[in-house]
Amino acid sequence: MFENLSDKLDRAFKVLKGQGKISEINVAETLKEVRKALLEADVNYKVAKTFTDTVKEKALGQNVLLAVSPSQLMVKIVHQELTQLMGGTMTDLNLKGNPTVILMSGLQGSGKTTLSGKLANYLKNKKGKNPLLVACDVYRPAAIDQLKVLGEQIGVPVYADVDNKNPVEIAKKAIEQAKSQGHNVVIIDTAGRLAIDEMMMDEIERVKKAVNPNEILFVVDAMTGQDAVNTAKAFNDRLDFDGVVLTKLDGDTRGGAALSIKSVVDKPIKFVGTGEKLDAIDVFYPERMADRILGMGDIVSLVERAQEQFDEKQAAELQKKISKNKFDFNDFLAQLEQIRKMGNVKDLLAMIPGVGKAVKDLDIDNNAFNGIEAIIRSMTPAERADPALLNGNRKKRIAEGSGTSIQEVNRLVKQFEDMRKMMKAFSGGNAARAMRNMPFKK
């Protein structure tokens, strides 16, 4: 995400490299490139102009310390202003109410129904809630079925009434059922509608009035760029929604919607959709997004993802095995599976400061561990538990069974033994974390 914008901003800052001080001339030249980069990312023109004017005012008003170059100072100021442009701080959902009622709104094709499922999954697994999904799209025949499939996948019930074509009645009855069955969150998926469709806009206003939601979220496809911002304004004028969810932010998007929407509608971005899987939804942190745009990585999000897969009891047992030099291929396989669960490998690497630019042009296959896993899974249970058993004949059999070469098997076994020695040496510290950082080659 934001790859093109990041590259263009990086080139803009190079104008100041080698400059001894900040001057009106070199700042103007840099900010001309910054404004151009923002406009090409489909940022609203007024937003881009106000942004660069603010940066210019702050840059010319500061003295450059000897320890800080003009380009470093400019990056710092741009980072601060990007963070403010996107809302400044994270804005959480309003989960008050018993039950909490969340009304989903958005255009046709924005990914609203899928996002409803992702949000239910997030609230269930991350917030310990007991959600109920409500199918209020009475116009699209497949919408109810789609929501039911999503509900089954995440283990969340769906309230639907296929014989009722009145979304207001459906929503009210769903809330009554939620109260009687102990659901503390109700997520109402409404029909996608065009902002210019007066009848449909009136309908969602009636749903809002009838259920008095604690939270109204506007779901919009980030890839629609400036159109997304204009649509958000039209919806906000009618619904006065509480927050925005940007979907498809992992696609080939220019990022203009994320950078413009807060300034135009004065409503925060609360979540972003980052992939097709039902756990591919992230809370939106403006500062972290600014870090990513400027190529600084996002180490906080990386650590949080790792912690989600971290099992303290399992880690303690692993620590004991490492200290006794009993770490085996079963343990290694389990660690690889945890890394896989964290998400796309290239996206994870891009969160490490300084690595994002290095890997952006590399084709890192998300199946990079397949060869290693195939070798391990071709071992017998005894061989996995005791790597010392792996003689020449066994390695040959494993190579044939995994579709790899004897050289690849030898290399993995050697790397594993080297890693095991290193982990034993550092067993007093967090060896499990050290293991995850070991560079394994295919």
Model description:
This protein has 442 residues and is an alpha/beta fold. The chain folds into three domains: 3-85, SRP54, nucleotide-binding domain (Four Helix Bundle (Hemerythrin (Met), subunit A), Up-down Bundle), CATH 1.20.120.140; 100-294, Rossmann fold, CATH 3.40.50; 303-436, Orthogonal Bundle (434 Repressor (Amino-terminal Domain)), CATH 1.10.260.30. Helices cover 56% and strands 9% of the residues. The chain has 21 helices and eight strands. The protein has an eight-stranded mixed β-sheet with strand order 3-2-4-1-5-6-7-8, with helices on both faces. Helix 7 (167-181) runs parallel beside helix 8 (198-211) and helix 19 (392-402) crosses helix 20. The radius of gyration is 26 Å and the shape is flat. The two termini are 27 Å apart.
